[in-house]
Amino acid sequence: MKGRIILVIGTIFLFAFLSGLLGYVTMGGPDLETAYHEGNVEITQKSSAGEVPHTIEVKNPGQRPVRVKTGTILRSETSGDLVTAENTEVAPESSAEVLAYSLEPERRTMKGSDLEPAGTVPSLMQDVISSSNPENPQEAFRTQLMIWVLARGDDLNIYRGEVYATVKGRDMRFYQLRDNITAVKSELASEYGLTEDQLNEVNINSSLLNRSQSPFKIFSMLEGLKNRFGAIP
Predict the structure, then answer these.
(1) Sign, Cα dihedral of 208, 188, 15, 88
(2) Which of 93, 111, 109, 43 lies closest to 72 in space, CA to CA?
(3) Is a pLDDT exceeding 50 seen at residue 16?
(4) Around 36, how many Cα atoms within 13 Å sit in the side-chain half-sphere?
(5) What separation in angstroms does the CA of 131 have from each of 2, 78, 115, 126?
(6) If DSSP codes are grouped into helix, strand and coil, which group holds residue 102?
(7) pLDDT at 211
(8) What is the sign of the dihedral through the CA atoms of 186, 142, 221 and 27?
(9) Closest Cα partner for 204 from 139, 128, 111, 135?
(10) Straight-line distance from the first to the last Cα atom of the chain, in angstroms, rounded to the nearest whole number
(11) Which phi and psi angles does 94 have, rounded to 5°?
């Protein structure tokens, strides 16, 4: 039985490695941040405050494709920061719309704002984003709440900024939002082995978010396999 489980896990990791390698080989050209600092792209927010997910436009007037990677932070002097929600490639002399999430709950985002790439979010937060489908409205909203919880912990203020705009835009009540936040905290605790105290104290600069997500994923896979095949001898 252990041999079967090891084989399944090995297959999963091999598939992930080959997928990443294929993506690296097929997606040529600089990444978004490199292209931006070379002066070869323009990034503009197309969506309004409160939309989930947000939409940005990446214009690439250059002669090489530009790679947009999930988890890229997009900063603005006039608007709340965003984080890209998907991998894509912007062809030369073209533009593309890319989905993104709010990263600063206390600051409203503004349609038409210019954005600048500024690194990537911590690994655990990146895993949360990569594991969801931003084109599914329910998944996107759930992921947005998880990002805010991980970015601010117990300091998350639901009565201001982008959070307030999101509640009003969805015609929600604040007690409903609190219930949703409680639910995603439980999911984060279960998925990543986080305690209540850790979730209360976490923020985007916490070393907690830089820990590898792999052990939690392996544990989750082992639990699933154990439920399927029975107890592991």
Answers:
(1) negative
(2) 43
(3) no
(4) 19
(5) 27, 30, 24, 8
(6) strand
(7) 75
(8) negative
(9) 128
(10) 7
(11) -150, 180
- The per-residue pLDDT for range 113-159, each reduced to its tens digit, is 999 999 999 999 999 999 999 999 999 999 999 999 999 999 999 99
pLDDT in tens, 185-210: 999 999 999 999 999 999 999 999 99
CA–CA separation, 139 and 105 (whole Å): 18
CA 7 vs CA 10, 41, 73, 229: distances in Å: 5, 44, 36, 14
Helix or strand run (H / E) with residue 84: strand 82-84
Q: How does pLDDT run across 46-72, given as a tens digit for each residue?
A: 999 999 999 999 999 999 999 999 999
Distance separating alpha carbons of residues 71 and 1, to the nearest angstrom: 37
* pTM, entire model: 0.81
Return the domain boundaries, the chain: 2-229
Picking from 206, 168, 165, the residue whose alpha carbon sits closest to that of residue 188 is: 206
The residue whose two tokens read 């988890």 is: 71
**Which tokens belong to 170?**
């969805």
